[in-house]
Design brief:
Length: 124
C-alpha cells in the first residue's frame, strides 16, 4: 500500500494560484493512477483531476479544465496540482488518492490510498 501526504494548501485571493503536492511512500508509486479530489463543507467528495502512471493520460473535471494542471514526477514520488484563476467556489479540502492499474476513475470508490487532505481557501 502506498502512503500519501498532501501539502501546499492555504489562503489565497480570488484569481490567485496555488500548487499542491502529494508525496508518496511505500510501494512502487510509478505503477499507480493518481487523482485529486476535493470536498467542500456540506458537499460530497468530487473529482478534480487524475493522471496515468506515465503522465501520458490526464483527465479533468469540466469546471477545472484550463485552470488546473496535474503532473507527476515519478523520480520524486510526487504528484502536483497547479491551480490557477482560483475562485471562492474552489474552497475545499483537497485530497490526493491513488490506485494500482491503468484505468482512471472519476469517483472515489476505486481509489484505495488517500492522503489526509490539505485545506484550500479562496477569499472573494
Amino acid at each position: 500500500q502506498v502512503q500519501l501526504v498532501e501539502s501546499g494548501g492555504g489562503l489565497v485571493q480570488d484569481g490567485g494560484s496555488l500548487r499542491l503536492s502529494c508525496a508518496a511512500s511505500g510501494r512502487t508509486f510509478s505503477r499507480y493512477i493518481v487523482g485529486w479530489f476535493r470536498q467542500a463543507i456540506g458537499k460530497e467528495r468530487e473529482f478534480v483531476a487524475a493522471c496515468s502512471w506515465s503522465n501520458s493520460t490526464t483527465y479533468y473535471a469540466g469546471s477545472m479544465k484550463g485552470r488546473f494542471t496535474i503532473s507527476r514526477d515519478n523520480a520524486k514520488n510526487t504528484v502536483y496540482l497547479q491551480m490557477n484563476s482560483l475562485k471562492p467556489e474552489d474552497t475545499a479540502v483537497y485530497y490526493c488518492a491513488a490506485r494500482e492499474g491503468g484505468t482512471i476513475y472519476t469517483y472515489p470508490t476505486p481509489y484505495d490510498a488517500w492522503g489526509q487532505g490539505t485545506q484550500v481557501t479562496v477569499s472573494s
